[in-house]
Specification:
transferase, transmembrane helix, single chain, Acyl_transf_3_dom, 0% strand
């Protein structure tokens, strides 16, 4: 995630921190969601808005793409870390899971790394879409249309890049007043009603078992069992529901400085690193440790601890050369 060093409204960083916390929580739910209907339900409603909202806010922070050196900046902060962690995580998972063979696919993103690759492409796509007519409409058409192509797989995260690009582009075109309109009086009450209504509508649109695959955004319609011409209307419906519930979430985000505002500027560290921590915990002990209600309640505590730790200044200090691509600078630039 591209980080912005200039001062900005704390509302944005508060929202980014809370959303990335929900991403961490959701990934804690993934290995056990199939065994627990309540967790499955919670994970689905969170999955409906957490990534779309995070992507929308990331697009909001990408307004400086026309500045000199921007492509070099996103290459260092997105593309270089992507390749670094593709290798690092590939090797780590090989030893963690005792795989019989080691295979490294640099162009097929592992786990959460798809976001770095897609974010790099989204920034490049701004150079084209900000110069054409009806950019949002075209982005939505492409996001819906990509679902009819079945041969892309996970290669270069192409499917997710087009599916989620409308949220990024919408965020780019929004200003702070657009994002904060949900902070008006009585909006929290309306937001609660919206959560309930959207959840009911979502359950009517798709069955529980298949809905998460739609939210992931990387499976073509045929792979979801929808081969009819009208399959794209389901994605359109999900686009609408995701936006509605995403703004309902923003109604509860604090507008003032909080104890986690600063961590909202370090979401790249939390996002990139949390997956390997969670998978290690499950592989070493967590599967066997979860049995009672209070054990599952501890997942909230684990998620909070991991989110705060990975966003801490100590983590930033030690991981900055990798996360921000600075480790390769001596190889790319000559000293004068």
């Amino acid at each position: 995630m591209a980080e912005v060093k200039n001062s900005r409204d704390p509302f944005i960083d508060n929202a980014r921190f809370l959303l990335v916390f929900l991403v961490v929580l959701g990934h804690f739910f993934v290995p056990i969601r199939g065994d627990h209907p309540v967790i499955n339900e919670i994970n689905h409603i969170l999955g409906l808005f957490r990534m779309p909202a995070l992507i929308l806010l990331t697009g909001f922070l990408s307004k400086g793409f026309m500045k000199k050196g921007y492509i070099k900046k996103i290459t260092m902060k997105l593309l270089v870390p992507y390749f670094i962690f593709q290798v690092v995580f590939g090797m780590y998972y090989y030893f963690l899971y005792n795989d019989p063979t080691f295979e490294l696919y640099l162009l097929s993103p592992q786990y959460t790394l798809w976001f770095l690759l897609s974010l790099f492409f989204w920034n490049l796509m701004l150079f084209v879409f900000t110069k054409i007519k009806y950019p949002l409409l075209i982005a939505i058409i492409l996001g819906v249309g990509i679902g009819y192509i079945s041969d892309l797989g996970h290669y270069l995260s192409i499917h997710r890049t087009f599916v989620f690009f409308p949220f990024f582009l919408l965020g780019y075109y929004m200003n702070l007043e657009h994002l904060k309109w949900v902070k008006k009086r009585f909006m929290k009450l309306a937001a609660v009603a919206t959560f309930v209504l959207v959840y009911i509508m979502f359950e009517q649109v798709l069955s529980l078992n298949e809905s998460l695959q739609w939210l992931f955004g990387y499976t073509p319609y045929a792979g979801l069992g929808y081969e009819k011409w009208y399959a794209g209307f389901y994605r359109l419906a999900i686009y609408g529901l995701s936006l509605i519930i995403g703004f309902a979430f923003l109604a509860f985000v604090p507008t003032r400085e909080t104890f986690f505002t600063e961590l909202g500027k370090r979401t790249a560290y939390i996002y990139i690193l949390h997956g390997v921590v969670i998978e290690t915990m499950y592989e070493l002990y967590l599967y066997d440790a979860l049995s009672t209600f209070w054990d599952y309640a501890l997942i909230l505590v684990y998620s909070a601890i991991i989110t705060f730790f990975l966003g801490s200044s100590k983590t930033v200090k030690w991981m900055r050369p990798l996360i921000e691509g600075k480790i390769v600078q001596p190889l790319l630039y000559r000293r004068n």
